[in-house]
Specification:
627 residues; five-stranded antiparallel sheet; eight-stranded antiparallel sheet; 16 strands; alpha+beta; 23 helices
Length: 627
């Protein structure tokens, strides 16, 4: 760091001119001024002789302008001493052994420096709240600057490190501003400049230039400027859509509530709110001005998956169109609709710069990946102009091969089974292959639904031999409707393909892949295909290890003898048959919707038939006991 361009006279003079007490300070404190007359060179040299060290450049230049400073932190250091008052800290509280004990076998360089700092450091403060401002000559840079460690003894935290005395003072100046931001009379050239910077950042963000807006808002936030936090949080939220952000009292503002309150309800709706549950969250939100009835209604719709993000105007119509595609798994098509309509988004007020409400929608929210969040931010909107970003690539690969590549998805499918049906709509599937009374659920993560739903044999009226599947429902880009179960099940001799029952309106295809099972039994992997039309099975095969069972006139392209080679690995054989199913029958599945999205589900009829006379069956239940 170089201080050649830094003017301590201007910086400290501006601080002096802007000085006003905090709102909680009384009249006596209000009379305090932060600075002192500067120390002459002789006084500084005398201090260096006493300490046997030359002081770092930025601290030396500071002393020449002001021999000490009233920092006035709310809780921390209050007063920095002058040249005659500073001295070596000498670790009076034996912090060194404590920090050395925690170094471990392979400590980081910064941890080693911190452990040795306590005995080397120069103590600057003369008045504080159990806090120390310590300059460490052992932690210096190429310009001769010493790192400053701010240690708040009452906080139980590691010291906060600043690369130099100048960096510390600039941070304290920003803190001085933040502490006084609530005072209506605290207006000066700095506050006006920062507020203008916030407005510049807002317009840059709406023009898609969020990369330029970010540092402006970050600096304004360090000064505590109003509006900076809520604008910055929107940018950060879309850059990391899975994170959570606080939008303060805007959640209760009628103009912004429809966009922001549902986003605040995501965590409690998922059961991730660990600070006292729903009542605590509702209490926090009512304290911000939101009505309890509104809070409960939003939380309930978020929890049961029925919440819809419904903005007005052309953007709202695009959102509805995109939801219709996304709710059946066509997420890339849905995203393209949203992307094309982004310029039409209108802000309900000057404090909203992006369609944050999208993140709360159970169908559309999962579509907003970090890459797509950046694309939203890079797209000009709300009537502003600017270059349109290059579209991000689609997320769904064609075909089915991704099922055999677990590394490509967030949740690998070691086993899976699926029904594809032509000539029908997704909401007709429960009537075709669903258990009695089955209907489609609200959009849900299939894994969450699987873990929360009782197993069929745990339900009253379900026979032990039954194998009912909880399936996610959607539609492929080729027009097939599908019902997918991504959890391993045992493909046994009682298997009853649902393809005939599903094929009343067109062809139906069933694929079942059972992974290899470890001993006992050491079952090899199995693969089943059956195709039906007009409620009649056309052909089918089941491959288990080297054994092949087949029926009907199987097309040459799907002949199991052609697709499954004993000398090849299970993965090679699986990839070959999945590619053939895509090429021959046009089958595909949406990877993103099945691994990261939320699809509607229902429970099917049993995939196994009732045992006949002389037939038996068995099942195993695993119970995990925590030690």
């Amino acid at each position: 760091m170089s201080d050649e361009s830094f003017d301590w006279h201007e910086f400290l003079g501006r601080w002096q001119e802007e000085w006003v007490p905090r709102a909680d300070e009384d009249g006596a404190q209000a009379l305090v001024r932060p600075g002192r007359p500067g120390a002459d060179e002789a006084a500084i040299a005398a201090a260096e002789e006493r300490l046997s060290r030359r002081l770092p450049p930025s601290y030396r230049e500071f002393l020449a302008v002001s021999d000490g400073w009233h920092v006035d932190q709310t809780a921390g250091v209050y007063q920095l001493g002058g040249a005659a008052e500073i001295g070596w800290f000498q670790d009076p509280f034996d912090m060194t052994p404590l920090y050395e004990e925690n170094l471990g076998d392979n400590p980081r360089e910064e941890d080693i420096l911190l452990a040795g700092m306590w005995q080397r450091a120069l103590q600057l403060e003369t008045d504080s709240d159990m806090s120390n401002a310590l300059l460490d000559p052992g932690d210096s840079d190429q310009d001769g600057e010493w790192a400053l460690y701010l240690y708040k003894g009452w906080g139980g935290e590691l010291p906060e490190r600043y690369p130099s005395f100048r960096a510390y003072m600039e941070a304290m100046y920003r803190s001085f501003h933040s502490d006084r931001v609530e005072r209506p009379d605290f207006v000066n050239a700095t506050t006006r400049a920062q507020d203008a910077q916030v407005e510049d950042a807002r317009l840059l963000a709406l023009r898609g230039r969020y990369g330029e807006a970010l540092p402006l808002l970050e600096e304004a936030l360090s000064f505590g400027r109003p509006r900076s936090a809520v604008l910055l949080n929107q940018l950060r939220h879309l850059l990391a859509p899975g994170s959570s952000r606080d939008y303060g009292n805007l959640v209760a503002d009628p103009d912004y509530l429809p966009e922001l309150l549902p986003v605040h309800a995501i965590a409690p709706a998922r059961g991730e709110w660990r600070l006292g549950g729903d009542d605590h969250w509702i209490g926090m939100m009512t304290a911000r001005g939101a009505a309890r009835e509104t809070l409960e209604a939003v939380l309930n719709t978020m929890r049961d998956g029925t919440y819809h993000y419904t903005p007005p105007g052309p953007w709202g119509r695009a959102v509805a169109e995109a939801r219709e595609s996304a709710r059946w798994g066509e997420t890339d098509a849905a995203w393209r609709v949203l992307r094309d309509a982004l310029p039409l988004w209108e802000a309900p007020g000057p404090l909203l710069i992006a369609p944050i409400g999208l993140l709360a929608d159970p169908v559309l929210g999962p579509l907003i990946t970090p890459e797509r969040g950046r694309e939203i931010l890079a797209t000009p909107r709300a009537g502003e102009r600017g270059p349109v970003p290059e579209p991000a690539p689609d997320l769904d690969p064609p075909g089915l091969a991704w099922l055999a590549e677990p590394a490509a998805s967030r949740r690998p499918f070691e086993g899976y089974r699926c029904v594809w049906v032509e000539g029908t709509d997704p909401d007709r599937l429960p009537a075709l292959i669903g258990e009695e009374g089955a209907g489609l659920s609200s959009p849900t993560d299939q894994r969450r639904a699987f873990l929360r739903t009782p197993r069929p044999r745990e339900r009253e009226g379900v026979e032990l031999w039954e194998d009912r599947a909880l399936v996610a429902v959607g539609r492929t880009t080729e027009g097939w409707v599908f019902a997918f179960d991504g959890y391993p099940h045992y493909l046994n001799k009682l298997f009853l393909s649902p393809a005939p029952a599903a094929s009343s309106s067109g062809r139906a295809v069933v694929v079942w892949r059972e992974p290899r099972r470890s001993p006992p039994g050491d079952h090899p992997a199995a693969f089943h295909l059956s195709v039906a039309e007009q409620n009649e099975e056309l052909y089918a095969f089941t491959v288990r290890g080297t054994e092949i069972q087949r029926s009907g006139a199987i097309p040459e392209a799907l002949d199991p003898a052609r697709l499954f080679h004993p000398q090849d690995t299970e993965l090679d054989n699986e990839l070959r048959v999945l590619e053939a199913l895509h090429t021959e029958l046009g089958l595909s599945l949406p990877r993103f919707a099945l691994t990261q999205g939320g699809l509607r589900t229902f429970t099917t009829r049993s995939w196994t038939r009732e045992p006949r006379e002389g037939e038996g069956f068995a099942y195993i239940t695993f119970v995990r006991h925590r030690p």
